[in-house]
Amino acid sequence: MRIFIAVNFPEDVKDALCGDMAGLRERSVTGNFSLRENLHLTLAFLGEVHPRRVSDIRKVMDSAICPASDAGISGFGSFGRGGERLLWRGLRLDPKVRNMRDRLIAGLKDAGFTPDDKPFKPHITVARRACYPPEFSEKDFASSLSDVPFRIEAISLMRSERIGGKLTYTEMYRASLPQE
Questions:
Q1: Rounded to an integer, what distance in angstroms lies between the CA atom of residue 112 and that of residue 106?
Q2: Domain total in the chain
Q3: What is the CATH number of the domain that holds 42?
């Protein structure tokens, strides 16, 4: 099964992100916009993992957690070249969350997994293959967006699969972060 470790967002944060996506959709020529239920922050992508290894991942998650912390959605940008872009909202994270992510990656490697360990650039993908008319300005659009504060209170092990042609993320395990 295809899995990753993520921070899932509360409903009010998803509401704000969906509002941002609606504004982008109105301005787009084309684009594949993220589904509300799939909005998340990826902490560690593992790819294909045998189901027998899930308990090992859960142990790593439990050993890497940090105290709950405040965070925020802030910024907007894109990756890619040419006309089609991946659009994202950025995240403001407490250093303890970044350290937790580093412990997750190290723990997963120590347990024999091969997580994607590219440099961590916390972002929420809001659209893929987005194409905009020449007059669209990312800078102007970014200035119209509000920061969205939230609290990270858990990390989740997620399964990614296509069900009925729809990309679906299912929570398999949730590690609650202790309150300070």
A1: 10
A2: 1
A3: 3.90.1140.10
Tell me the pTM: 0.92
* Burial tier of 1 (Cβ tally within 10 Å: 0-12, 13-18, 19+): middle
Backbone angles phi, psi at 154, to 5 degrees: -165, 160
- Burial of residue 164 (number of CB atoms within 10 Å: 0-12, 13-18, 19+): exposed
Angstrom distance (rounded) from CA 79 to CA 177: 31
pLDDT tens figures, 96-113: 999 999 999 999 999 999
Rounded to whole angstroms, how far apart are CA atoms 142 and 63? 37
CB distance 161 to 170 below 8 Å: yes
81's enclosing H/E stretch is none
How confident is the model over 5-13, as a mean pLDDT?
97
Q: How confident is the model at residue 180 (pLDDT cuts 50, 70, 90)?
A: confident
User: Residue 13: what residue type?
Assistant: V
Nearest to 7 by CA among 35, 44, 34: 44
- Domain range enclosing 62: 2-176
The answer to whether the beta carbons of residues 158 and 52 sit under 8 Å apart is: no
Rounded Cα distance, 147 and 70, in Å = 13
Does the pLDDT value for residue 117 go beyond 80?
no
